[in-house]
Amino acid sequence: MKLKNQYKGIFYIILSAFCFALMDMFVRMAGELPSIQKSFFRNFVAAVFACGILIKEKKSVSIGKESWGYLILRSVFGTLGILCNFYAVDHLALADASMLNKMSPFFAVVFSVLILREKVSIPQITMVLGAFVGSLFVIKPTVANMDLVPSLMGLLGGIGAGAAYTMVRKLGSQGVKGSFIVFFFSMFSCVVTLPWLIFDYHPMTGGQIVILLLAGLAAAGGQFSITAAYCYAPAKEISVYDYSKIIFSTVLGFFVFGQIPDVFSWIGYGIICLMAVLMFLYNNKKAFQTTLYSNKTKEKS
After folding, report:
1. Using an 8 Å Cβ cutoff, are 43 and 270 in contact?
2. What is the Cα–Cα distance from 139 to 244, expressed in whole angstroms?
3. Mean pLDDT of all residues in the chain?
4. Are the C-beta atoms of 269 and 138 separated by less than 8 Å?
């Protein structure tokens, strides 16, 4: 049964990766529109879906006082992450923007130490630093690099997402439902971006509206798929499969936009993915040792 659930978790996390890659593609296809305007439509659709789920569940939502601060922080960091990611998607190759956004798990480790006061080992610190080195190959921080600002924005998006995921983990430990977290975050983002949408609205064609609605649908699919994935299996068992988004983004970027990442980007992809695999293996080994120690302790008692 456990193995069957793990396979379901892997399926859903790969599905979420594909949905988020589609979201990035649609955001890019929407053309020359402000990132804030694109973000509003993406979050509006996600809010409608989350609201529908909450209504369908027909259960009252009770949020403790200690959770509201984390909900707001999750929403602030998440909104920052989306805006920066959308800007990067509009100005970089899809694969580059996707990889920089996938720095979020490593930044989640950093924020878990700074915010949640969790302990981190030397191997984990080494892998975080290794991933950061890999990101430098993607960013290529030189004055001659015309994509430096979008690359830094992409990295900032990964930082925002990492902080947001840290808040989600804390909220999950406090018993806050995933559907409510998605709904609150999506509505928060809509409210925050609405003033800019009103005062700096860029007229859209019917095609652009449809594309942005598709981006919102893809985002909703990605959010609920990844939630389902972690319901079936713990992060330590399936998180590495989330990097399949890089493959989807590279393929979509090539066939839809004719984008081909340069050699330095490929080196960066390799380093970051290697660090992700090492982190995955390290966490599994650590969990196994903890379980083994716990079982031995029970036998002695």
Report:
1. no
2. 20
3. 85
4. yes
Find all residues with CB under 8 Å of 157, minimum gap 6, and list them: 80, 81, 82, 83, 84, 85, 87, 88, 100, 101
Residue 233, Cα to own-chain centre: how many angstroms?
A: 18
194-218: per-residue pLDDT in tens?
998 888 889 999 999 999 999 999 9
For residues 155 and 150, what is the distance between their CA atoms, to the nearest angstrom? 9
Q: What is the DSSP letter of 140?
A: -
The pLDDT of residue 72: 94
Label residue 67 exposed, middle or buried (CB < 10 Å: 0-12, 13-18, 19+): buried
pLDDT, tens digit (0-9, with 9 covering 90-100), for 175-197? 888 788 888 999 999 999 999 88
The DSSP symbol for 202 reads: P
Q: pLDDT tens-digit profile of 109-159?
A: 888 888 877 787 888 888 888 888 888 888 887 656 667 888 899 999 999
* Residue 184 identity: F
Residue 116 DSSP code: S
pLDDT one-digit tens code per residue, 229-238? 876 776 666 7
Its pTM stands at 0.84
For the chain, the straight-line distance linking the first and the last C-alpha, in angstroms and rounded, comes to 29
User: Closest by alpha carbon to 262, among 154, 156, 147?
Assistant: 147
What DSSP assignment string belongs to 228-269?
HHHHHS-HHHHGGGGGHHHHHHHHHHHHHH-----HHHHHHH
The rounded distance, in Å, linking the Cα atoms of 198 and 186 is: 18
Residue 189's SS3 state is helix
| Alpha helices by DSSP H, 58-177 | 65-91, 94-101, 104-114, 122-139, 148-173
Helix axes 2-29, 94-101, angle to 10 degrees: 130
Q: Three-state DSSP class for 143? A: coil
